[in-house]
Amino acid sequence: MDTKGVILIKIIFLAVFAGLTGLHAQMPAMHQTAPVALKGGTIVTVSGETIPGGTVVFENGVITAVGVNAEIPAGAEIVDITGKYVFPAMIHARSSLGLSEISRLAETVDLSEHGNINPNVRAQVAFHAESDHIPIARTYGIAVTVATPTGGIISGLSAAMLTDGWNWEEMLYRAPVAMVINWPNMGNSRVRDNTLEELSEVFSAARRYKQAMEAAGEQGVPHHARDVRWEAMIPVLNGEIPVHINANEIRQIQAAINWAEKENLKMVLVGGRDAGYVLPQLKDKNIPVIVSPVISGPSRQWEEYDRSYTLPRMLYDAGIQYCIAGDFAPAYSMRLAHHPSSAVAYGLPLDEAIKTVTLYPAEMLGFGDRMGSVEVGKDASLIVADGNILELSTVIEQVYIMGRSIDMDDRHRRQYERYRERYSRMQDAN
């Protein structure tokens, strides 16, 4: 097929895709051009005391002042938020947002590559900036999502992405975040043993490659061709980034912990459905946990119905570092706040629950110095709301990402306005 034919097919596909999704790409927000002061609201700093009647000032995307008597620079835009609340924007620590649009339309899904071993996969390059799911997550207060690849044994490298921007390069916040590993099912001994043998051989090969690269140029050392797979694993072997191991069942969790210790790797447990059964081991080995999800039923007939809902409280009581990620599917990313709010209903303190989707993920993902709380020097990624962001009745009125005031329109809100108008006309007709 000639080049014109290929281009035509692509145009037709994009047109069909836009029709199927109702694609309505929004303009990215303008960069901050003048200081902004959010004045008179209750500032929930998360990392410190809550400040009633306070002010947050930010300039060039960075918070410059916080407090009751915060100095407002000349020429600043003053936004009266009396009676409102300011929170740090939320962080979704594990999601397919931006990597998947319509699960039944393969052309819109870019979650995994062929084969079991893909450490060189970089999630950010597959991130679709014009996904219809992103504006919805954004208007629900999510400023950063960790795009996470799936599939195989080693899925690749996850990336923290902003939910506002023109393209993936502009939306990239931090990468790589972690190497994603899927722990095998421990019930099938043949599959388990084969998988673990392959996994061990991969790390052995990567170490040999690293050693060869470090010795390159020395007398008598032969040339070694570069391999992008093993090159991608060097930050993991050096301890610069952790391995995020997806494991839920108790035997998976225990085996993963032992393996990571043997391989001398920094491990973060992801999913962790049975983490409550191995709290002493997690605490002793200093293994952080990304709980995903909280809203779920028991996995065994004999378990309590609220087992998943009480897990965050168990981790909190045990003093284990953790955060809450919520649903993996992009269409449900906007429900992130529902998960910690459900944990509150089962014993997790409210102030603690807010941290599980703000400060804690920022710290666990490597950018706690830049995001996660309302502090001077941190990025001005903020939520202005009429109540606590974990209350389901709360309305988020404005979101700022890196100081940019984002467009609060999304597909959900357009549908709401559409049908509100419909019923208004019906009432008028009657």
CATH C-level label of the domain at 90-371: Alpha Beta
CATH homologous superfamily assignment of the domain at 90-371: Metal-dependent hydrolases
What characteristic shape results from the CA principal axes?
A: globular
Written as H for each helix and E for each strand, in order along the chain, the element string is HEEEEEEHEEHEHHEHEHEHEHHHEEEH
Structural class category: alpha/beta
As residue ranges, the low-confidence spans are 6-15
Compact summary:
The chain is of the alpha/beta class and 430 residues long. The protein has a domain at 90-371: Alpha-Beta Barrel (TIM Barrel), CATH 3.20.20. Helix content is 32%, strand content 21%.
Characterization of this structure:
This protein has helices at 3-21, 133-139, 168-171, 189-215, 228-237, 250-262, 279-285, 307-318, 338-345, 350-355, 359-365, 411-429; strands at 36-43, 51-59, 62-67, 77-80, 85-88, 90-95, 142-147, 154-162, 172-182, 243-247, 267-271, 289-291, 322-324, 382-385, 396-401, 404-405. The strands form two sheets. Strands 1, 2, 3, 4, 5, 14, 15 and 16 form an eight-stranded mixed sheet that branches. It has an eight-stranded mixed sheet with strand order 6-7-8-9-10-11-12-13, sandwiched between helices. Mean pLDDT is 91; it is low at 6-15. α4 packs across α5. It has a domain at 90-371: Alpha-Beta Barrel (TIM Barrel). β2 and β3 (62-67) form a beta hairpin. The protein has twelve helices and 16 strands. The protein is an alpha/beta fold and 430 residues long.
